[in-house]
């Protein structure tokens, strides 16, 4: 869908829905929100709904960064310590690489 | 793997180039009673409804009719060329994904003992006659299942059981987005020997699936929606490549193109009836399982309307079962004020739509060529053949301006090229190479 064609109130509502949806463990949704509405929120000349749109985009970006940090930490820990964890490591693993310790 | 009915649905899409709706005027409110005027309608100007923030009254014009014949023909051709490119890219992407996966992940070329219930006859490699017979029988079973499903779909659509159709569609896209992508990821990780833990995996699949559902069935950025449609077509094609027995696959490809031809062109064909019913009701024909490309031209301060309207009309309206179709849509852009010259104010957005089943079967053909053909010559030959076929089909669409099946020409070329390259060109190239004779 093209953002150009819809009125500003609808844009705001869409952005808001995407923002709220991201709370269901959906950082990807926040990413889409940020990328899609970035131009609208920051690069377009001001209109009435813009400040709210901006706040949603900013909050989505913050949430996204938080998730990225959490996931990166977890993945690093897992990859590093998986072998050492023994049984727990295997239990958590979906695929276990062959041929390595 | 036991395939469920919903998997069946996804590939029920026949390719059909749907009757090109003559230029539609997207109203700003996107009301559905935009009628599809005939080509011969006279030029109309209609101010877009207020509710715009822009101070400039935006006019909507249909350009095609007003211009003299020469320009109209030129427009038709211009429309053809740009749209060919617009379809080449997603079709190519889909095929690239499938071929890349086939070549790297061995899972999809390993023949497990399992078969789909739609191809119950086993292919016995020992006897050629028996094998051929069984593949024909498999094809008959498969095609009859498809015909049956299509007829059910048309009946449901005629009797306005939209909820049912929508539920069916949602179920099949759920399965594609979650289950098949889960399988796919698992195999990719195994191939590349990467350790993956359940929590991260669940996050990935959950995000991928939910955002996919949102983009496809509700509202989302156009590019993302297109990307998701390409991905699910590729996933479906990979499933077919894995679970269809060797010879049956080729016979099925041929049979489906013939069925497609019949279903779309014959007056009583189910697909044609579907298309006509939808057009009578002025409803968007096939939501959620049609790939629509959009093209936007912008001039000055005009807000250009998009076949985002096509998407919206796709999503709204009837939950008709998505079928393959190539629809040429003329969405007239909102022109700028009269100050500009005639050529400049009138812009057209034309989106073109191609059904997902087309993507799937093209990719199946190229994927099988990559899997069994042996070397890249065959794969490339099939790829080129399909693109040529697509080109020709679009040309025919521009000429005939009605629903056309997109499968027959491409699949025929593809099959011809595959078998001839495999049996003629490859031994030739091999013996040239072995004799170190370069041409």
UniProtKB/TrEMBL annotation, chain A:
Record-given protein name: Gamma-secretase subunit PEN-2
Keywords: Membrane, Notch signaling pathway, Transmembrane, Transmembrane helix
Subcellular location(s) of the protein: Golgi apparatus, Golgi stack membrane
GO cellular component, one term: gamma-secretase complex
Domain of life: Eukaryota
Transmembrane annotation, as ranges: 18-38, 61-78
GO BP terms: Notch receptor processing; Notch signaling pathway
Organism name: Phoxinus phoxinus
